[in-house]
Write a structure and sequence with these properties.
Largest sheet: 5 strands, antiparallel
Radius of gyration: 20 Å
Helix content: 25-40%
Number of domains: 2
CATH class of the largest domain: Mainly Alpha
Shape: globular
Structural class: alpha+beta
Strand content: 15-25%
């Protein structure tokens, strides 16, 4: 059933997490994983993205226990898998905001306890290095196409990169919460793909990056949209990303992979796009950052 247009707001997210916590079948690990996934929900694309490695670090749980927890959350209807992870691409989860907490009468002594993975752990961890939730029958139906290989489409159509003599806008930094610790880190882009929004058909670039200390960031940048404001904002963000890398508009999305850049993770209760630091000295000074 199609969810209402307002689904995915702060109230709906809180209600979903509350319903999961109040369910008889959920464990403390389920609560932690649900919190992380719900916080990474991106309303524009109606999904949350999280890799298995990210969930392991966030919960400090073992891989088999994380997989067992994901299975419970999916099998009991809180989430479903839209697209399983592959390589460094995280798994995409559909959040069911109409989920209702309930007591499950089934015996979960062998598979519902986070510490007991004797039935679910065998052979699972080695087969799901990308963060896939394992065997999820609901998830298979949500896979629209195979994107194991990068899509080769030109990215320069309609994109105007700013003159490098012009300082990058600092409005993104001002949007951070008051008192937030904005730490600049060195990142390497480890995955990039051109994808299409199922909501309105807009094209966007998805990139993920990792720092030397293991911090993971991801970003979704519109490259083509019928909405003029969305299109313009996407052009600005793509230009900022290219300037942070120190390159002109790429001919192919795969050109981003392996590129190094400086970025800031914006803390907050919900997902926020990273803020990119220009690679050139003038851009850094314009943003008040020491070269």
């Amino acid at each position: 059933m199609k969810q209402p247009d307002h689904a995915g707001g702060p109230v709906e997210r809180l209600n979903l997490l509350s319903a999961i916590i109040l369910s008889d079948w959920s464990t403390k690990l389920d609560h932690k994983i649900a919190t992380i996934i719900i916080n990474r929900y991106y309303k524009a694309f109606d999904c949350a993205r999280a890799s298995l490695r990210f969930l392991e670090r966030g919960t400090k749980a073992t891989r088999p226990n994380v997989i067992a927890s994901l299975r419970r959350l999916v099998e009991n209807g809180a989430f479903s898998v839209l697209r399983e992870g592959a390589g460094t691409r995280p798994t995409e989860y559909k959040l069911h905001f109409d989920f209702q907490s309930s007591g499950i009468a089934d015996d979960t002594s062998s598979s519902g306890i986070a510490d007991d993975t004797s039935r679910n752990g065998s052979g699972i961890a080695d087969n799901t290095p990308s963060g896939s939730a394992g065997d999820t029958s609901r998830g298979a139906s949500g896979i629209a196409h195979d994107t194991k290989t990068l899509l080769k489409n030109p990215l320069t159509s309609g994109v105007t990169l700013k003159d490098k003599s012009t300082p990058a806008p600092a409005h993104g930094l001002a949007a951070a919460p008051v008192g937030a610790d904005l730490k600049v880190r060195d990142f390497t882009i480890d995955y990039a793909e051109l994808d299409k929004s199922e909501d309105d058909g807009s094209d966007f670039i998805y990139v993920s990056m990792v720092s030397d200390d293991g911090t993971e960031l991801d970003d979704c940048i519109y490259t083509q949209s019928d909405n003029q404001k969305t299109q313009e904002e996407g052009q600005i963000r793509l230009a900022e990303l290219c300037r942070a890398i120190g390159m002109d508009a790429p001919e192919d999305v795969s050109d981003f992979v392996g590129c190094k850049l400086k970025a800031i993770e914006v803390p907050g209760p919900n997902w926020s796009p990273p803020r990119y630091i220009p690679a050139d000295e003038w851009g850094k000074r314009a943003m008040g950052i020491a070269a």
